[in-house]
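Hey, quick one: can you model this chain's 3D structure?
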Amino acid sequence: MPTQTPASASAQSPQATVRSRMMIVVLLLSLLYSAVVLVREWKYTEKANPLMHQSSTMRALLFQKGARLDLYDPHELFVRSGQEPNLGTERFRAPRLLSTRAVLIGNGTSARVRDLGSAYTYDPLTAAQNSEILSLGRNTNFTYYIPEGPDHTHLRIDFARCGQIADIPLPTAELWYDARTLFDTLALPMQQKMVLSPAETSLALVHHDAFPRITLVQLIERQAVALSVPSFNPDQLHFSPFFMDDQTLLFSVLDRDHWGTVRYRLSTGTYEILSENFTDHTYHSVAGDIMLQQSFFDETINVP
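Sure thing. Here's the predicted structure for all 304 residues.
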């Protein structure tokens, strides 16, 4: 006799088919919704990124009260605090913000990096090393400094206490230059300053104790060259370097006859007179405007 399918089995088959189709429809709708959300986020990222790159963002604020440091992070909305009990206020040089957690603290000729989010602290230079002019990379792994003593004609680079990785000769002193006599005659303050380019491929150095002009150090090639503006006298003084970007450096120039602010193009080695007035600080706005601050010959001397 032929086999007959049970009535219950024949009745469940259409229901199983409907359920399967419903599950497929739900899965397709879920995939479609995910695709729509992904496309929207991708379009938003494409539009938002240029604005984010052009806008200035405040990452952290540092407040100093005696030996106490308070670091305010506007994104996390809380304050990290640190205390340096071994540093008196009279020996406490102005600290420098390295990140939203780390601060560079100067004490005489030594320096210390303090993480305000933990108890971690370290000295970027060893006990045998002293330097009055020092800078750290953005991630604090690289230490750039000029040693005191006879080696002040070299820029050294250390990597996170693992040792020295570069020793770059700096330009030799010029015969006409007597720093103390010259600056006393001009009644101007001397500068000691290091500035890294945004990508940290170049370093601009002002060290008036040893040299009158800005030294531009190419950190990849490990080469240093002294800048000299052709339209000024050979005996010229430079002040206040400022990187607008990795290929544009601003600084001020002073000689016997005139002064001004110069824009130097690293890629071409060309100079452009930006202003015929001296400036001691430069601001670069989001819109691309350049603002020059002049307080050098004011009653209150302000040279950063």
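One thing worth noting: The longest strand covers residues 237-245.
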